[in-house]
Amino acid sequence: MTVSNPELEVGASPNGVEELESVTIRFAGDSGDGMQLAGTQFTNASAVLGNDISTLPDFPAEIRAPAGTLAGVSGFQVHFSSRDIHTPGDSLNTLVAMNPAALKTNLKDLQSGGILIVNADAFGASDLHKAGYKTNPLEDGSLKGYRVIKVPINKLNREAVAEVKLSPREADRCKNFFALGLVYWLYERPVEPTLRWIRDKFGKNPAVLEANTRTLKAGYNFGETTETMPVHYRVAKAQTKPGRYRKITGNEALAIGLVTATQLANLPLVYATYPITPASDILHYLADMKRFGVRTVQAEDEIAAMGMAIGASFGGSLGVTATSGPGICLKSEAIGLAVMTELPVIIIDVQRGGPSTGLPTKTEQADLLQAMFGRNGECPACIVAPASPADCFNMIFEAVRLAVTFMTPVFFLSDGYLANGAEPWMIPKIDSLPQIVVKHPTEPNGNGNGQQAFLPYKRDARLVRQWAIPGTAGLEHRIGGLEKEDVTGNVSYDPLNHEHMVGIRAKKIANIANEIPLLTVNGPEEGDLLVIGWGGTYGAILSAGERAQHKGHKVATAHLRYLNPMPKNTEEVLRRYKKVLAPELNAGQLRMLLRAYFLVDVIGLNKTQGRPFLVSEIEEKIAQVLAEKRGASATVKV
Amino acid sequence: MTVSNPELEVGASPNGVEELESVTIRFAGDSGDGMQLAGTQFTNASAVLGNDISTLPDFPAEIRAPAGTLAGVSGFQVHFSSRDIHTPGDSLNTLVAMNPAALKTNLKDLQSGGILIVNADAFGASDLHKAGYKTNPLEDGSLKGYRVIKVPINKLNREAVAEVKLSPREADRCKNFFALGLVYWLYERPVEPTLRWIRDKFGKNPAVLEANTRTLKAGYNFGETTETMPVHYRVAKAQTKPGRYRKITGNEALAIGLVTATQLANLPLVYATYPITPASDILHYLADMKRFGVRTVQAEDEIAAMGMAIGASFGGSLGVTATSGPGICLKSEAIGLAVMTELPVIIIDVQRGGPSTGLPTKTEQADLLQAMFGRNGECPACIVAPASPADCFNMIFEAVRLAVTFMTPVFFLSDGYLANGAEPWMIPKIDSLPQIVVKHPTEPNGNGNGQQAFLPYKRDARLVRQWAIPGTAGLEHRIGGLEKEDVTGNVSYDPLNHEHMVGIRAKKIANIANEIPLLTVNGPEEGDLLVIGWGGTYGAILSAGERAQHKGHKVATAHLRYLNPMPKNTEEVLRRYKKVLAPELNAGQLRMLLRAYFLVDVIGLNKTQGRPFLVSEIEEKIAQVLAEKRGASATVKV
Amino acid sequence: MSMTSPMSPLPVLSAKDLASDQEVRWCPGCGDYSILAQMKKALATLGIAREKMVFISGIGCSSRFPYYMNTYGFHSIHGRAPTLATGLKVARPDLHVWVITGDGDGLSIGGNHLIHAIRRNVDLKIVLFNNEIYGLTKGQYSPTSRIGTRTKSSPLGSIDNPLRPLSVAIGAEATFVARTIDVDINHLTEVLKRASAHKGTAFIEIYQNCKIFNDGVFEYATDKSIKADNTLYLEHGKPLTFGKDRTKGIRLHGLNPEVVALGNGITADDLLIHDERAEEPSLAYLLSRMVYPRFPECVGIFRCVEHPTYEDLLTKQLEDVQRSKGRGKLEDLFTSDDVWTVE
Amino acid sequence: MSMTSPMSPLPVLSAKDLASDQEVRWCPGCGDYSILAQMKKALATLGIAREKMVFISGIGCSSRFPYYMNTYGFHSIHGRAPTLATGLKVARPDLHVWVITGDGDGLSIGGNHLIHAIRRNVDLKIVLFNNEIYGLTKGQYSPTSRIGTRTKSSPLGSIDNPLRPLSVAIGAEATFVARTIDVDINHLTEVLKRASAHKGTAFIEIYQNCKIFNDGVFEYATDKSIKADNTLYLEHGKPLTFGKDRTKGIRLHGLNPEVVALGNGITADDLLIHDERAEEPSLAYLLSRMVYPRFPECVGIFRCVEHPTYEDLLTKQLEDVQRSKGRGKLEDLFTSDDVWTVE
Ligand SMILES: Cc1ncc(C[n+]2csc(CCOP(=O)(O)OP(=O)(O)O)c2C)c(N)n1
Ligand SMILES: Cc1ncc(C[n+]2csc(CCOP(=O)(O)OP(=O)(O)O)c2C)c(N)n1
Ligand code: SF4
Ligand code: SF4
Ligand SMILES: [Mg+2]
Ligand SMILES: [Mg+2]
In degrees to the nearest 10, what's the CA dihedral of D86, D91, D93, D96? Predict the structure, then answer.
């Protein structure tokens, strides 16, 4: 297409406006094309506009693949809406494809009739070849069925920044902002937040600042002024609860939550970790929070990180470590030590595709049983899991509370989707946050052969021992990994003491159930089907459940944010429904636990594709389960 | 008591003889008193005599405690019988106590009216004090109720060796043989095997040889010639299957089985390990088998040992590693790599009391769920467990067969009791042993872009890939821990391929069920109760079941030697009984699996005292379970 | 147990024969490309059959290396490559085994396995790609990053003293120790050849540029205009000289090296003479301590001495007992304790 | 955050005050007893409050040590003590932290943590009980066992070259390195005092006799009749002399030490002078390479230099940003991204 000179046609846009409830858009291009940035900016703009949002970045494998290849494609999906939403969206209303590879890998997710914006300048012979196209999809008619908008983005971008002194490479780097501007117009987003961001970011580099500003506006104007565009769209504010909001990813929420909880508890925070995808960003955030007194250590490996966390907690700080599945393997022996010494530590597992090295950049929730059982001996620990990116703030807060209240290691099971996905977060009022009280004893608590002494394994009514810390005179004591005599904490090989201690350790964890919220359901209090999940599948399950409810089915959903122990009423809730379905991004791990604990014939919906559930996948399974007859004797093959 | 001069009274013994079916005796003394040796010799003598035997050594904590203290007591229990037996015995007919500490820690296990042989010379004031006795039990009447035989063993031993040139310390070191001689007489054991052992062992040291010989005989004669002894006893030969027998411990059987299986399979054996109680002896045995071509490596840690095993298997040897629970934690990441690369390796876990460092010298079976689930992602491996010391030979043979037949890591779950306990083992006829066939391909098995190529993940009907090894021209290929594309083995991030591979890995392990024996029961084919177990509890469960059957109860017992996968008929067997009881030396791990798989309300009998079950403990539980009514909704709290 | 099948081609290889069918995936401009190219070049000249070569790596950008070699390969887990390689070599002394690792893989999580492989003198060629950064995880500082390095995980600069890979290796008495640079392709090729000729553990540190996260850290050693003053090429038996026209040298003052300019009185005879065969590793250690900017950094072979390898000693123990006591028979094993017969 | 409560006794301690109520359980004649006794003696003199002292160990006979000290203590897991100690010191720079480890615990499974604690120069006193054997597991050879050592796991003799603990520590540039002997109680006490006075990682190797599984391995260094010829007591600034009446010395020949007899022409001036403060660790390394029987083995302080500690640098970074940017407020954290308000 030829582009008429914008100058001439500035003024009222010829196009009409259409109102939409929700839209899902994906920016896709080469790793070098800045798609993550474009997506993030679009998300901000939409959030600030008052839409509810949910995002899903999709990274290629860790190493940057050659430009233009399929392996090098990077995508960022944004779902924005005027009602409240819980997932990044099943399928795309609009796809922005910056090159043939991006088109090829993403087209399948675009709804038929959907809007396809392509960078027409990137479809040269060699580009097509790199993407494995024999013929040019822009010409071979394979794209009919979509509303294709071919835009010579490279060319228009260069024109837009022509007057700015930049090398051609620098100039081309701006093109993501041209595309962004175009889409801003298409969905009536404000450009201001992004212009502000550009000013902050490139303040030191006026040329780049100017270029990005110009091309963003040029993109916007291009939309406004060319007839080739369809009508453009409006997505109204969502009816969200009044308050102050920000966009937040799971890893951000986790880091912020950790700092908040420990500061309110007056607990120094020591964060020791070894980098691993997708947990590394937590370290990056916390390493930058030295203003808040956070001490981060990049350890030599995961074992060391766990040991450092334990050492820090022994000293009266809260020791926290984070990793992904392979790192949990390495930490497991030391986690056992924390269980035996009954010290508060938090172990964050940002789960990824496994087994072994697996799929480092893809999401999965297959470490639940590892967290439950992945240690020698009877070695119970507390386990919590956030339900959404913003919920990482709440649940890490809970993890801190439970760790120090019960003197126990606590697992926090996040995953790649939660870690990198974003949603709006209502900024809490500090004084509305729960108080966590930590008391270190300063006096002996009993008698050891005659005189006053500190008995490290003397327990309170909840079976919790005291957290006496070095530097406290008169409370000197020794702990370790050998079995302990109850009360005194001395090494003991006594048979009955061992059995007693195995029981105590289990009972203490079980007691946590007395101090966590009960399990609630969304939907009918009883009925034909309960859909129960844990972790990052919350949004998809909730949405699927609501759709089923709208269809009039007696279906409810429930979500376990506390996995060990589970809420006290879990069994009772399960038994109120004829059938129970557990959708999981694994082969059936929660399902295994529920069946074993309650002898309930829990049905599984299991996906291990390194991707979150689509709402429709769960919706269909619900329909199927409601339809089929199923006897109570069905057995799992795990 | 005064001792009349043996010389004068040699000849016919004044005492009568009484016939017994079974006897349990325990030698107890200070770690320095040579009780393990005395017990082992007594076991040999009894075995050679044709009794069935079962033994239970009881070591103190690893480090030698001060002489004479309770912590320093070491014991060795021998159960010998004229019928076939399965356990070391619940309670003692005879206790040999070499000092007060030994008396104090062991007396509770002696039956009332039992024979108590004490070394009267070791009950001085300081000895009594070290053992925490206020008054001398030999005099304060606290021992009435037992047939106490006070023997001045130190004195008699010194007399016996008086003419041999030895330092007093050396002389005293012989006293365990005096006690042994006395007991040999008491139970009519032949001294010859022990005299032969003494000759072999001390050939280079004539004085010690002579001294031990003399005191052994002196002890024997002492029994024969003093009236203070009660009648003595005879335990007839057991009606055992004809054949050649030897006594064997679990760790011995395991080492011998490994060498046998690999030799018959023409498979070089590389054994890489890091020492840990109670697995170290396996290394000690194999390191001494270089004549058999065994290559042992003492690695720098458990992770290295696992890596070495994988590397060896990649090279076409069978890589085997052994450890105990804490070491499994460390190996778990690399085990995941073996699962992903589908290489045959054997991981031996000699379980001990946990969690953490726990009770290193005590037995437990609490690593089952760790073996099942202790890795990141969906990471299935095969698991087998021996039922008795001698069964370690059979099951390690099976482990080798399954590992190479299915190209998978195989866990072998032994425990401290199996490892150190002994029983008679019928020496197999070499040609009666199963054949294990290993084939390494030498030709390409497919096509990669055009030309012939080797496809490492191409599978046979059982879903097993080929074991192509370096050095084979034309079969060069690369494997690793990232998700693999099926067939080609290339790295793949494809969502559907990942789901497919997760399924394949699970299915392959499930397929093993087609090639292992079905689960059999001992007792009625159906009835009121099935008692099901795994691992070292076999003997106690079997005995308890038989006693219940004799009482006329419809009780059967079954034992799972294959835990993942389980025999195909497991569910069907469970359902033939009204109730199912699972006795375990843990908090209910097999129980958890059975409930989850089959939704059967399995009842638990759980002991975590670092000790094996007594038959009576299971017997009582059986009675109780048969008595009580129990609803199907009972839930486990794990 | 050599498995070379009769019909295997005579090992006359071209670099191309050593390239696998996998698309090479490193960032444009990554130093790893050069190392891969030189490796293929070097190996092609050795007369070793391709099927006898095995590359074992850990995890990291560098550790993707085996996928690109048309030999046997194993991309293992983070830090553990030396353990798999040791197991393989114990099982198969006939193979030519390379370990590919990075500064994080080899010195952070894998440091212990590295020194133990080295002290056992297993016949492995260990190549450590030192880019002073964690590349694969997108740019955290590594155990070789210099103090003050600002990265995502050290926004105010790193505070951990770096490890010097060669000092660590020499601390474990490595029998072969060398350093080279990704862009010095001829030297790189030479060092790789020397390493593969060595019988025992050969440890090679390669300065490798990470274009994306640590671009230019080794500029002082690679930039045409200055590298001559900042690097010193070791030659066995020769005095230590460097600089354009090699007009500068290293003299020992007690045990401290000092930079001297040749001329006015100072001649080559006053300089420290390199001896890669010195039995005692102290010289190699001292050279490993020379760090830019105070000193030029040495490249070349620091140490190369012959010691028996672990696998040879193990094999010898097996052969010796089998010679003296005869090969074991299962019957002996079964009857290693008292035996009795029941009729 | 100092927790010393006001009513804590002035730190005037006797060795007895440092004994816990636990019965000491090592084999009769074990060298560990002497080390425990000297440790209590040394610490009593330091004027440090008991509650400020923490002993952290791994697993092994030696690692039971903390149970016997009436201070804070942690008997952790095998090989990991340095990691717990690092975490503790990062959290609590005010504490006086000791790490107790063995040759297996510290150099086999724990080797990597050891060198990383050392390179970070965390202010820890690391005491390695070297008995050249695995005692607790009843006698397998260890990474410091000499070649040919026959044990349960090496019935034909060990074939792995031993690591020299001090060479490894110096390879990681330890700022304080020393060696002493269990039975030389005065020297042992002195070394422990020097170590605790050092700010930074102090690494101490103690030759310790395992009565049960390795009795007498250090006889050459402990037997009255011969020890003078087989040990060399280092003194800062003094020439290296040894032997009865110190009539023998060590002279440098190039970089190789050689034993010379003093007299006829050879004087103390010809001998190598010890300098524990040498910035470059090459001398310390060279001394760590002197091994019996070829050389007398050095005991004493090999190296003692001042470098900033890890925890101080970390604390400084925190204080600096808080000074420049002010202490962080949660509100700033919450609003670190665009904020919008819904009415
Ligand atoms: C057990 C485990 N921990 C952490 C990681 C994440 N990880 C992968 S590579 C790497 C470090 C890479 O740095 P380096 O070894 O220097 O290799 P480079 O990428 O720089 O070549 C890390 C921390 C992992 N894959 N496995
Ligand atoms: C993870 C783990 N692996 C192995 C062991 C077994 N183990 C305990 S101590 C030890 C070595 C002890 O040797 P050393 O460190 O020299 O201490 P020593 O007993 O000689 O004082 C071993 C292998 C263990 N407890 N934990
Ligand atoms: S990140 Fe750095 S090291 Fe990794 S491939 Fe890219 S340039 Fe190379
Ligand atoms: S085994 Fe050795 S090191 Fe351990 S306590 Fe006994 S003598 Fe000491
Ligand atoms: Mg690197
Ligand atoms: Mg030791």
Answer: -60
Q: Residues A469-516: pLDDT tens digits?
A: 999 999 999 999 999 999 999 999 999 999 999 999 999 999 999 999
* Per-residue burial over A444-474, b = 16 or more CB atoms within 10 Å of its CB, e = otherwise: ebeeeeeeebbbbbebeeebbbbbbbbbbbb
Position C343 confidence tier, pLDDT thresholds 50, 70, 90: confident
pLDDT at B62: 66
Positions of E strands within B514-594:
521-522, 527-534, 555-560, 562-564, 577-584
What SS3 state is found at A233?
A: strand
Q: CA-to-CA distance for C56 and C98, rounded, in angstroms?
A: 6
Q: pLDDT tens across A16-56, in order?
A: 788 999 999 999 999 888 999 999 999 999 998 999 999 99
Q: Which of A80, A79, A135 is nearest to A109 (CA)?
A: A79
- CA of A229 vs chain B CAs: smallest distance (Å): 34
Contact status of C338 with chain B (Cβ, < 8 Å): yes
Helices and strands, counts by H and E, chain C: 11, 12
Cβ atoms of residues A571 and A557 within 8 Å:
no
Residue D285 Cβ contacting ligand 2 at under 6 Å: no
Ligand 4 proximity of D138 Cβ (cutoff 6 Å): no
Average pLDDT, chain B: 93
CB atoms under 10 Å from CB of A387, counted, come to: 23
CA distance D52 to D7: 14
CA nearest to B575 within chain A: A633
For A638, residues 6+ apart whose C-beta sits below 8 A from its C-beta are A587, A588, A592, B593, B596, B597
The conformation of residue C105, written as its DSSP 8-state character, comes to: I
Return the pLDDT at B14.
47
Report the complex ipTM: 0.95
pTM: 0.95
Q: Is the CB of D30 under 6 A from ligand 4?
A: yes
The pLDDT value given to residue B277? 95
- Cα of B357 vs centre of ligand 2, distance in Å, is 11
pLDDT of residue A630: 62
B520-523: long-range contacts, CB 8 A cutoff, minimum separation 24: B520/B558, B521/B556, B521/B557, B521/B558, B521/B573, B522/B546, B522/B556, B522/B557, B522/B558, B523/B549, B523/B554, B523/B555, B523/B556, B523/B557
pLDDT at residue C182, as a whole number: 98
The DSSP secondary-structure symbol of A365 reads -
SS3 D180: strand
Q: How far apart (Å, rounded) are the C-alpha atoms in residues A178 and A617?
A: 35
Strands D124-130 and D202-207, how do they pair?
parallel
What Å distances lie between residue A453 and A442, A446, A449, A450, CA to CA? 11, 5, 8, 9
Chain C residue with CA closest to A298: the answer is C153
Residue A195 pLDDT greater than 90, yes or no: yes
By DSSP bridging, strand B527-534 and strand B555-560 are parallel
Identify the band that residue C283 occupies on the pLDDT scale cut at 50, 70 and 90: very high
Phi, psi of A87 (to 5 degrees): -140, 165
Q: In the 8-state DSSP scheme, what is residue D245?
A: G
Q: Measured between alpha carbons, how far is residue B122 from residues B67, B136, B139, B351 in Å?
A: 12, 11, 14, 36
Which pLDDT score is estimated for B32?
83
Q: How many CA atoms lie within 13 A of A122 on its CB side?
A: 29
Q: Where does B308-453 show beta strands of DSSP type E? A: 318-323, 345-351, 382-384, 409-415, 422-426, 446-447, 452-453
**Contacts with B206 (C-beta within 8 Å, 6 or more apart), sequence order:** none
pLDDT digits (tens, 9 = 90+) for C171-226: 999 999 999 999 999 999 999 999 999 999 999 999 999 999 999 999 999 999 99
* Mean pLDDT within C70-94: 98
